[in-house]
Specification:
single chain, mainly alpha, Arc Repressor Mutant, subunit A, three-stranded antiparallel β-sheet, 7 helices, globular
């Protein structure tokens, strides 16, 4: 017997959602709530650790074939690292995030400020060690990344 993986279930859910959207769906089914009467959350599910790690590996694979300066984006590297940290239920300090970005610390901090100004990350002081500050995705960034991974993992139509 074949057991479905989380990714299989997510793929099936996305297919069903696409079919419902394409054909107008069932308004009654859309308005139904869960067992407790609360509306069902149909927002994209945050990607699995495996999916995020695979994306990071594919990103790094390009540098084996092309000069990494052609495709390098510290903001994207940080967002992917923060997505992985969130999916794993961990926290990451600013210094570790700067290292993961692959650029000098001053450059990484500048890009971190860009992400913060865009409302994608937030700094959280460490309650135990006042010298350390953690960084986390904002809820809007988490939602945007979930939507990105959902769309990125769907089959794309062939060009006409």
């Amino acid at each position: 017997m074949h057991r479905l993986t989380y990714e299989d279930l997510l793929f099936l859910r996305q297919g069903i959602d696409s079919l419902l959207a394409e054909h107008g769906g069932d308004d009654d089914a859309q308005s139904e709530g869960g067992e407790d009467g609360e509306p069902i959350d149909r927002s994209p599910t945050f990607p699995s650790v495996r999916t995020i790690k695979s994306t990071i590996r594919r990103r790094k694979l390009r540098s084996k074939f092309f000069d990494e300066k052609l495709f390098f984006d510290p903001c994207w590297e940080m967002l992917l690292d923060l997505a992985l940290v969130e999916a794993e239920g961990r926290r990451v300090a600013i210094t570790s995030l700067c290292i993961a970005s692959g650029v000098p610390q001053v450059t990484a901090l500048r890009h971190l400020n860009i992400l913060a100004e865009a409302g994608l990350v937030e700094r959280q002081p460490d309650p135990i060690d006042k010298r350390r500050v953690f960084v986390a995705l904002t809820p809007n960034a988490s939602k945007a990344l979930a939507q990105y991974f959902q769309m990125a993992n769907q089959p794309l139509p062939l060009a006409a």
